[in-house]
Amino acid sequence: MSLLIRQVTVIDPQSEFHNQVVDIAIEQNGQISTISSSIAADKQEVIDVSGVCISRGFVDIFADYRDPGLEHKETITSGLKAAATGGFTDVFLLPNTNPPTCTKASVEYLLQRAKGSIVNIHPIGALTQQIDGKALAEMLDMHTHGAIAFSDGWKPLQNAGLMLKALEYVRAFNGMVIQMPIDVTLALGGLMHEGETSTRLGMAGIPKLAESIQLYRDIELLRYTQSRIHFTGISTEESVEMIRQAKKDGMNITCSVTPYHLAFTDESLVDYDSVFKVSPVLRSEKDRQALISGLKDGTIDCIASHHRPQDWDAKTKEFEYSGDGMNLQEITFQVVYDTLEKQVPLARIIEALSIRPREIFGLLNSPIAVGTNCYTLISTQTNSVVSDNTIRSLSRNNPYIGKSIRGSILGLANNGMLHLYRP
User: Fold this and answer.
1) pLDDT tens track for 109-123
2) In terms of Cα–Cα distance, which of 110, 195, 82, 102 is closest to 155?
3) Is 51 exposed, middle or buried (CB count within 10 Å of its CB: 0-12, 13-18, 19+)?
4) Which helix (H) or strand (E) element contains residue 32?
5) Domains in the chain, ordered, with CATH?
6) Tens of pLDDT, residues 255-280
């Protein structure tokens, strides 16, 4: 049965309907058939929910489904369900699996596993063979067979010479390097942000310098090679300013922030709750406000979930030995909107989740119009209640379980399919 969704706000600056409140008729396959100020219902299912907005399909550019190798934490199947629940039509998968995504065969494996899903998988190929930081992987081969970008994921490349070669190599085919800026020698042994809170708690800290030095090094390598790089998981005030200046210098540099760095600070660790143990670590309130300002003014291009599922055993142990990461892909929009509703315009949040990642990585980028069949539907007026029963991921390392947060995902369309979630 076709649908008629009433009073939908279009959020898409490149659409002729941007910021207009319209009725939208949708076919069974998800394609938009009519957009008008008012549409008379004719044998359609009518949906009338307050605060409905439509945007291009959300894109998550940094997620880990742990498959193959760690399927007890997440599988491709459960990860795709989590992505769809979060309104993501496209997900970039990290190469940190066992075996890692460092050959064309491993890229093809991931693409094959996603066939028939409403969510598109885009494998991120490893920068180095076996993600060991010793020799470059066959990036051109992986690119030819579908790798969207290249990164060593949770193990940021430390070797400056190899990073230089990687940036020069991808420039030949207009490829992209994704780097999480952490100097592991400065972060070694650290458990949280180095500051007043770490001193009070008696935990080893990771200085902001661990991020700044790596970021500075890679920006200078980028300046030298004139290539392309995307920094993900930036967490400090200094990083925002360095990237802002690099953009002013005309460099081909972009970046993303996680929902948890926008929502939490190192103060969340006062109870030694390992759910807040993440990488990069949560920083100070001053850093958080700088990240919010950077997102608002466009210095920060994208929001990436850094979805990293952990099983119960990995998180329920001494803080020092617990696994890193949060499982927030299903509620990324809600976390960001609930946190920033009064500080960052909704249109900028949606741009960071949908339009900018599509522009940066060259994905399908059709504006909302008649004929569009890739989009996400949200509501800003309904709430999402996070519970064990609603989480689609296999893992539960999520600090919002048992809580209600503002906003909800109403549905998405992609690949000739429409999924609708009724509040």
Assistant:
1) 999 999 999 999 999
2) 102
3) middle
4) strand 32-36
5) 3-54+369-420 (2.30.40.10), 57-361 (3.20.20.140)
6) 999 999 999 999 999 999 999 999 99
